[in-house]
Amino acid sequence: MKEKIIAKASEMFIKLGFKSITMDDIAGEMCISKKTIYKYFCNKELLIEESTKLLHKEVHENIESIVQQNYNAIEESFKIRNKFTEMFHSTADTSPIFQLKRHYPEIYEKVMLTEIQECSMCFEKNILKGIRDGHYREDLNVASYVKFYYMLIFSINGDTSSDKESKQLELEALEYHTRAMATTKGIIELEKHLLNPEI
């Protein structure tokens, strides 16, 4: 039951926001009593922490499954971005990550510490792949570009309240990041994906 509560809470938090969803909402959605939830989680903050751990695991499993498909580096970046858009589709008035940062800052800081480490490794592997396949320049300072990109992405998600605006800015950040690194071959590949970012 504990795992089912975490899974349902994670789904609801992402769709409707961490602040917006209450323990009553989760209990009602699952057709269980609120008392059952409190048997496993003494407060909402603890449930949010467990939910963010599950989301982190799902995100990185999805990233790894995309990496295993052996796309070129630029296509891989767009596939990952599209998977994020699909996973984190929200109907909340404000972005779930923005809500998490604003209303649960301690949990947000823990999430960011973990995500920065994981995402840095992911971005580094992508850049090295791009250099190998000729889509990115060989003279890149890889560590700097990794840092630039995660600072850009995390600031968008943490500081932009509108979910729609966040997704648009993420796409523009991906273009900005890729153009800064791309060879002529990489620019051609990038333009192809920008014409249809969902391919």
Would you mind describing this structure in some detail?
- The chain contains ten helices and no strands.
- The longest helix is centred in the middle third of the chain and has 28 residues.
- It has 199 residues and is mainly alpha-helical.
- Helix 5 packs antiparallel against helix 9.
- The mean pLDDT is 90.
- The chain has a single domain, classed as Tetracycline Repressor, domain 2 (Orthogonal Bundle), CATH 1.10.357.
- 28% of the residues are buried.
- Helix content is 77%, strand content 0%.
- The chain is elongated and about 60 Å long.
- Keywords: DNA-binding.
- This is TetR/AcrR family transcriptional regulator.
- InterPro entries: Homeodomain-like_sf, HTH-type_Tx_Regulator, HTH_TetR.
Offer a few descriptive terms:
single chain; HTH_TetR; Tetracycline Repressor, domain 2; 10 helices; 199 residues
Helix tally equals 10
Q: Say which CATH homologous superfamily is assigned.
A: Tetracycline Repressor, domain 2
The name of the CATH topology is: Tetracycline Repressor, domain 2
- From the spread of the alpha carbons, the general shape counts as elongated
InterPro entries: Homeodomain-like_sf, HTH-type_Tx_Regulator, HTH_TetR
DNA-binding region: 22-41
Domain HTH tetR-type: 1-59
Protein name: TetR/AcrR family transcriptional regulator
